[in-house]
Amino acid sequence: MNLAVQKFAEYAPILQRLCQAIGASILGMLKALGALCFFIADVVRHCLTPPFFFRHLLRQFMDIGYYSLPVVGMTALFTGMVLALQSYTGFSRFNAESAIASVVVLSITRELAPVLAGLMVAGRVGASIAAEIGTMRVTEQIDALTTLSVNPLKYLVVPRVLAGTIMLPILVLIGDIIGVYGGYIVSTHVLGFSSGTYLQQTWDVLEKMDVISGLVKASAFGFIVALMGCYHGYYSGRGAQGVGAATTNAVVTASILILIFNFILTQVFFS
Amino acid sequence: MTHKIELKNVIKSFGPKKVLQGVDLAVPQGSSMVIIGGSGTGKSVALKCILGLIKPDAGSSILIDGHETVGVGARERDGFMRKFGMLFQGGALFDSLPVWHNVAFGLIHGKEDVNKEAAKILAIEKLDAVGLGKNVADLYPAELSGGMQKRVSLARAIATNPEIIFFDEPTTGLDPIMADVINDLIVKCVKELGATAITITHDMASARKIADHIAMIHMGKIIWTGAIAEMDKCDNPYVDQFIHGRANGPITDAIPA
């Protein structure tokens, strides 16, 4: 008995420290989540109230949308091509080659185009947003905006978040077409399908909902990418290190959230 | 006489670190107050509290034109913000915009909604006031030297004819001649606008040139304040050590080695 008490006394401080560490990290997480919710509420409020910075919005359309086109296009093209090759290896064993067209078009429109485009854009756009806004924070440019009576959320964050939400579906729609075309190229030129049959099969299996669900996902992912870039940049730590950490966090959180919300949205759409 | 800016018992801590521990300061209308003090004594935090960029802790009171500004809503805060102009330590110029747009920024996006052409003409006037030619207007901030960036930043701070101007270490990082040029410009601009100015600095040459009044901040409190002429006669050992830049004295003695 005595020994047990003694042992406990020995381990109590360690246990206490362990509990403290767990508690502190949970509290920290809740605090960050709360801050993020307030940030989102602020951003949405500023999206709806004037003044609006239309020129900035147009510029962000270019930056986030147009300049992401090569990256998203390449990703979609090669994904579609590889999808055709891989499903051929599987399906040819069961003489089910005719399913290749449907596998390609459904995987691309429902899953691969939105998710891969989201991840690519997170790397390209999310990082650059976080770095840009983080540098503005560190060099007091955000404070300067406030002293010039311009709300930094309105001026910096709203155009980016809107542009992300609007442009990603457009990118994904283009990605859908390019991805299917990639599958078509491989199927007709490498696997020996007739082009008419392939297109017919593609068209037969595709439903409106497949494309729409992909576009809704894309819109959500665009919002996530731009929001995470802005949020981490806006609350960036000091110095080069702070901006570096903000950039990393923006990409990592955006990527993880994309995967999580992809699951949630799929569940909502197809169950 | 009412004071333009009045701080009463302003407190601010970041976590366990108490940066401001009850700052009391009154700045008369139209005068130039210089706050001196070592690095990390809370000068910048005090300034940002007045601007509303940092929210002071409960119990603090900051009056501008006799109106309380602590804890007011966003719209009222906006009204106060229109009275301010600020020269940031690093310039804080927007590097994606050309120089003239930087200067005209507050005019175009902020208050009166001046159209772009008119704002550009005004911006060029303001650039002229700080000794920069028309040819600078279309350059980008990254293409300018440090001294020129400071001047552009000064032009931006005065562009909207603010009632109150803050200068955060205006001469830091400049050579002595350029520092003096900036000092002259500050004196000239503040006088022409009839503005109330608060400058924070640890450059004594600059402080002597700009100040009507001096306040010294130490360990988060104002430990001495008075007219510039009284500074050299005062018997406060902290002030004495600081203005003469001595390594030994009550300020450094208090810091554990």
Give a structural overview:
The complex is a heterodimer of chains A (271) and B (257). With 271 residues, chain A is mainly alpha-helical. Chain A has one domain (70-270). Chain A is 87% helix and 0% strand. In chain A, helix 3 runs antiparallel to helix 4 (100-138), helix 4 (100-138) packs across helix 7 (195-205) and helix 4 (100-138) packs parallel to helix 8 (208-234). The mean pLDDT of chain A is 92. By secondary structure, chain B is of the alpha/beta class. In chain B, the strands form 2 sheets. A 6-stranded mixed sheet of chain B has the order 6-7-8-3-9-10, with helices on both faces. In chain B, helix 3 (99-110) crosses helix 4 (116-129), helix 3 (99-110) packs parallel to helix 5 and helix 5 (146-158) packs parallel to helix 6. The longest helix of chain B has 18 residues, at 176-193. Chain B is globular. The N and C termini of chain B lie far apart (45 Å). Classes of the chains: A mainly alpha (271), B alpha/beta (257).
What does the secondary structure layout of this molecule look like, with pairings?
The complex is a heterodimer of chains A (271) and B (257).
Chain A: H1 2-48, H2 54-65, H3 69-91, H4 100-138, H5 141-147, H6 152-190, H7 195-205, H8 208-234, H9 239-270
Helix pairs in contact in A: 1-6, 2-6, 3-4, 3-6, 4-6, 4-7, 4-8, 4-9, 6-7, 6-8, 8-9
Chain B: E1 3-14, E2 17-28, E3 32-36, H1 43-51, E4 61-64, E5 67-68, H2 74-81, E6 84-87, H3 99-110, H4 116-129, H5 146-158, E7 164-168, H6 176-193, E8 196-201, H7 204-210, E9 213-218, E10 221-227, H8 228-231, H9 237-244, H10 250-253
Parallel strand pairs in B: 3-8, 3-9, 6-7, 7-8
Antiparallel strand pairs in B: 1-2, 1-4, 4-5, 9-10
Helix pairs in contact in B: 3-4, 3-5, 4-5, 5-6
